[in-house]
Specification:
The structure holds three protein chains of three kinds. Chain A is an all-alpha fold. Chain A is 71% helix and 0% strand. Chain A has 13 helices and no strands. In chain A, helix 8 crosses helix 11. The longest helix of chain A is centred in the last third of the chain and has 38 residues. Chain B is 31% helix and 23% strand. About 3% of the residues of chain B have low confidence. Chains in contact: A-B, A-C, B-C.
Chain lengths: 300, 339, 314
């Protein structure tokens, strides 16, 4: 039974799906028009600025022990309080942001670059696809924790190690997204026509396939970033992420566990910063998806 | 000349014989409430259907015929505001609370959808879908319901009914699915069946079969049928009377054969002329110029006036539905016979 | 149906073997010597070498692999270097804990997810829907280990309703077991339940717009049957996918929770075994997880086939 709304929607979409991304300019404009997007971008900007300006905002080595100042609750001088070693929590959170965000960014860039290349090849060449997808299935069945732990065991826990481990683990979801999109685009008449005319394959990739893939990739990037930040925190918390000499939100929480009854603020603030960052990234991803989704009949 | 507005007591509005009326719709208006306010979709629709009679609700997409039907069924969207009276088998149902309205569905009113592939549940067996409605509406036991379902499928011309009951919708062809849809609609013995473009999605050869089946069912069970369609040829061949709608208004109402052969409203005339027909000698089709005004942008006065070749001074005022020679027309300058 | 399952099973074999090969290579080719670690700093090179030969660590890599492969097929997974017990006896002690934890967490997640998602979809855009959607976004962004710490602070430290850590197996009594499993299960399940809520909501919204729901209503079927039988049947399918992913995640990724609550689970055992270079135990552990996941996938495939007959014929 078609109501007026349904027929209206049918007219809009014309029955078919528009798989291509809109231009970057209009994406930006639309992003700024979306309230959730603005809030999430604002949060991310603030956190990034805090991370970049950490040496200025909270100078000094955040890991330096100061036994005289142990367990000070949040106060004027130490707005986030101090921990069991007298270290200022605000300093730790702000400096920890640098590592957490750096790892997130690096993992996102690396894993998505690999995913795009492999996904495009896989979607295009069926023989490669069959083999690759079985490997990916196998990879996904492998507990990421074990991989990370093994990597930490081999190379020693450090920022570099955790970036490698997380990048490997997070390739698979992006690869599927890219591959899926390439599979759709490949079937389009336009590709057939281009090939018939003799357009070289590399050109096909850059002119046709990549633009079609850029929207879902943008959306996916936000979620991968979020997963990377969460992953690094979890691994560092257990001790198989970054090393003890480095600082991130994850390992700021490692020992906080033991003092939770005496000084809950040690647990509260790094975790809050972590959650806020992840939340902002997730919201950004949602907004991007709402904006870039070509199906105009999508409901919120 | 005084204009006699058409009411149900005038000759053309009455069914040919004085059979009892199954459905009476009086001054039905439907508006949708959205963020911007109240949007009228359908205004002052009135018609009636007698036992065994087939009435077409005809018009192009966007004229409001589907929402009229959903208002009658009681399944209009939540933000719809409905005024007017709907009387089913002598009892007013328009004032009933939602729950009571829903109870009438299936038992007293049956519904046939356009796209049987999507209108039947994809992962429940055909049998289950039929027995669910039989058991709920008629209180039958599972065994009795299954028997009746098999009978019904048989009656609508589906071979190996028992096997089909155990199967799924996607295993059937388009024509078969529509037959199942018909069986489902009449299964609880309703007095009214509303068919929303039942043949539009089918192949031409199958269309004829399904229409014949509907005709058979109508005669055998003396069903009152409301046929929603945009196909005027179907209206002429199949229906006793027709209600032509345009932009939310009833523009012409009367015997189907009369309207198709010699329409009085310029819009109806335009529709007939625009139809490519068998044995047509014309070199080109004659479309109606302009487009249907979207909901919310209806002109003041007669809604068809901007596109009408006969428009005159009076058309700035919305004409009433008035008795004309053989049908009721909403027009200040209706066509005479043979024009 | 049988052919379908067989086909699914064949597709799953790589998911069992690839992880095994990966872990095998990772461990044997990495620096660090289990024999040396076992014997400690005082051991002489001769003692270490003797232990290495005894453990078969000096053979060429493909010989080691062949020995190990044979071991799997004969169900002899060797002895844990650290525990000095057969791997086959060590692992079940830990697997049971993780599996129980996963089951409880999954039940919580599914129950909450489906209920909230359903309520949300049926009252779309009304205040309760907005509330549920907001909570779901928060839930997805909540780091599990941090939430675990918060739960401990509120319920164990402050309210003292639960023990801070430790594990009581079900044999110790239902209440004792429940006390130690509930907080970890909540911590593990909250994020997954948020994901499931979202999926249920969006799936149900899609389904409620389908013509066959209108048909069901047009037949006079009561609303609870329309939603409960007709809509849920189709809407549940994507949720099954999410539930499967959740289970897979919980089985392999609950390490932080297990550490925080001191649960002797499989994830924790694996991580510790990797640091100790306890090859047989790590390999056995990964094999166990892979097998459990493979069985899980098959179960999910069966559920799909039950819910959607069209799949059976592919």
């Amino acid at each position: 039974m078609s109501t007026t709304q349904a027929t209206h929607n049918e007219r809009l979409t014309d029955g078919g799906e528009e798989p291509f991304a809109t231009t970057t300019k209009s994406v930006w404009q639309r992003l700024l028009a979306n309230r959730t997007a603005i809030v999430s971008i604002a949060i991310l900007v603030i956190i990034s600025l805090a991370a970049i300006l950490a040496p200025v905002m909270a100078p000094g080595n955040p890991l330096r022990v100061s036994p005289a100042n142990r367990f000070i609750p949040p106060s004027a001088e130490h707005i986030f309080g101090t921990d069991h070693l007298g270290r200022d929590m605000f300093k730790m959170v702000v400096h920890g942001a640098r590592t957490s965000l750096l790892v997130g960014l690096a993992v996102t860039v690396i894993s998505m670059s690999v995913a795009v290349v492999l996904g495009a090849i896989s979607g295009f060449y069926r023989q490669v696809d069959v083999v690759l997808m079985r490997l990916v299935d196998g990879l996904m069945a492998f507990p990421g924790i074990v991989l990370a732990t093994a990597a930490a065991g081999i190379m020693g826990p450090s920022t570099r190690t955790v970036i490698i481990s997380l990048s490997i683990v997070l390739i698979a979801p992006s690869l599927r997204v890219v591959r899926g999109q390439v599979l759709v685009v490949r079937e389009l008449q336009m590709i057939e026509a281009a090939r018939a005319v003799g357009v070289p394959t590399l050109r096909l990739f850059t002119r046709y396939i990549l633009p079609a893939v850029s929207s879902p990739i943008l959306v996916q990037a936000s979620f991968i970033f979020s997963a990377a930040v969460l992953g690094e925190a979890g691994l560092s918390f257990i001790g198989v992420g970054i090393g003890p000499k480095e600082l991130s939100w994850g390992n700021a929480l490692t020992e906080a566990r033991n003092y939770i009854s005496q000084a809950p603020w040690i647990v509260l603030f790094p975790g809050l910063a972590l959650m806020l960052t992840i939340l902002a990234l997730n919201l950004l991803g949602d907004s991007l998806r709402d904006i870039l989704d070509p199906r105009l009949t999508r409901r919120r | 000349m005084t204009v006699r507005t058409a009411s149900d007591s005038t000759p053309t509005a009455q069914p040919a014989s004085a059979r009892e009326l199954v459905l009476e719709v009086r001054d039905l208006s439907v508006s949708l409430r959205n963020a911007d306010g109240l949007l009228p979709i359908v205004t002052d629709v009135s018609f009636s259907i007698a036992k065994g009679e087939a009435v077409a609700l005809a018009g192009e997409s966007g004229c409001g015929k589907s929402i009229t039907a959903s208002a009658i069924m009681g399944i209009a969207p939540d933000n719809a505001e409905i005024s007017g009276t709907i009387i089913l088998n002598g009892a007013a149902i328009s004032g009933l609370p939602h729950r009571e309205r829903r109870k009438l569905c299936g038992r007293h009113m049956g519904f046939i959808f356009q796209e049987p592939m999507t209108a039947l549940h994809p992962t429940l067996t055909v049998g289950r879908q039929m027995t669910d409605t039989l058991r709920h509406n008629l209180g039958l036991s599972h065994a009795a319901a299954t028997d009746r379902a098999a009978e019904l499928l048989d009656r609508v011309g589906i071979p190996r009914a028992r096997e089909i009951l155990k199967g799924y919708v996607h295993e059937l062809s388009g024509g078969m699915r529509q037959r199942v849809m018909i069986a489902l609609a009449i299964s609880c013995g309703p007095s009214l069946v509303i068919a929303d473009e039942p043949t539009t999605a089918l192949d031409v050869t199958i269309q004829a079969q399904v229409l014949d089946l509907l005709d058979e069912m109508r005669r055998e069970f003396e069903l009152a049928m409301l046929f929603i369609t945009h196909d005027l040829e179907l209206v002429g061949d199949f229906c006793d009377r027709a209600v032509v709608m345009y932009a939310g208004d009833v523009v012409e109402r009367g015997r189907a054969a009369d309207i198709v052969r010699s329409p009085a409203h310029p819009y109806a005339r335009g529709l007939i002329d625009a139809m490519p027909r068998h044995g047509d000698q014309r070199a080109r089709l004659t479309p109606i110029p302009g487009t249907v005004p979207p909901v919310g942008h209806w002109p003041q006065g007669c809604r068809f006036a901007p596109r009408c070749s006969r428009a005159g001074k009076k058309c700035t005022v919305r004409p009433p539905l008035a008795v004309h020679i053989r049908s009721d027309v909403r027009c200040w300058y209706p066509l005479k016979v043979g024009q | 149906m049988l052919r379908y399952l067989l086909k699914r099973f064949l597709l799953i074999l790589p998911t069992i073997f690839v992880p095994l090969i990966i872990v095998f290579l990772l461990l044997r080719l990495s620096p660090g010597d289990p024999a040396g670690m076992m014997l400690g700093d005082q051991a002489t090179p001769e003692q270490i070498e003797a232990l290495r030969t005894q453990l078969g660590l000096n053979e060429p890599i493909w010989v080691q692999f062949a020995i190990w492969l044979k071991g799997i097929l004969t169900l002899d997974l060797g002895n844990s270097i650290f525990f000095r017990e057969p791997v086959m006896e060590v692992i079940p002690r830990y697997v049971s804990v993780t599996v129980l934890l996963t089951i409880v967490a999954l039940i919580l997640a599914v129950a909450i997810g489906i209920t909230m998602g359903l309520i949300s979809a049926m009252h779309r855009n009304k205040p309760i829907d907005r509330g549920v959607v907001a909570m779901a976004v928060l839930g997805i962004s909540l780091p599990e280990f941090w939430f675990a710490l918060l739960l401990i602070f509120v319920f164990a430290v402050t309210l003292r309703w639960f023990p801070v850590a430790g594990y009581n197996p079900p044999s110790a009594g239902l209440i004792a077991f429940g006390a130690t499993i509930l907080l970890p299960a909540i911590a593990l399940g909250v994020r997954q339940s948020a994901l499931m809520t979202r999926m249920m909501r969006s799936s149900m919204l899609d389904v409620l717009n389908e013509p066959y729901i209108t048909t069901a209503r047009a037949q006079g079927l009561p609303e609870r049957k329309v939603i409960g039988s007709y809509a849920m049947r189709t809407a549940a399918i994507p949720v099954v996918t999410v539930a499967g992913l959740a289970a897979g995640y919980m089985l392999g990724g609950a390490v932080a929770i297990e550490i925080i609550f001191a649960l002797p689970g499989l994830g924790r055992m694996l991580v510790e075994a990797v640091s100790r270079r306890d090859y047989p135990l790590v390999e056995g552990g990964v094999l166990t997880i892979s097998l459990i996941l493979a069985v899980l996938n098959l179960v999910i495939d069966v559920i799909y086939a039950i819910l959607d007959p069209r799949i059976r014929y592919q």
